[in-house]
Amino acid sequence: MIYTVECSYADPGSEAEWNDFYSLDKLPALISVTGFHTSQRFKALGRGYPVYLAIHTIDRSDVLMGGEYRQKGGGTFARWQRHITDWYRNLYSGIDRAPAVEQDEVLVLCPSGPDSLIKMGLSPSVLHAVALEKVPERRWLARLDRQNAHLAERQSDIQLYAPMTKQLINARVAAQ
Fold first, then answer.
1. Which of 119, 58, 112 has the alpha carbon at shortest distance from 89?
2. Contact 82/8 with Cβ under 8 angstroms?
3. What contacts 115, CB < 8 A, 6 or more positions away?
């Protein structure tokens, strides 16, 4: 399953510290949770959708209900919670593993269908919302070379995200 967390952050004075916490502490803690396979964090290149996106590959939805998740990753935002806005969580099926987006690429998301992505020469994967907020119900995603990001910027139904971190891989999964 693909677990996504999206949000914006409303306090410029503490945003850098919050980003350091999320990227350097929270993601490594999450990737150590049994049932988490990959984690990667992104920042929006456009407006009109949440600024931050984290995409995780997990085994099953019950991973998010377990004590290990709650202890290591879930609910650790107390210090910054009042500044977090546009917060959405979703669980999707459709692909087995989130794609690793490299620094010279962008993640392209489209909730309205695959046509815009196909016209850009991409081969999008579809995600189907199965739990949590289930909005959007479906989403298509693809990777795009950063130098070609301008092709998507003119399309109102496309969301572009640049990677903030490398994709982290759970050590147990990497050893397999």
1. 58
2. no
3. none
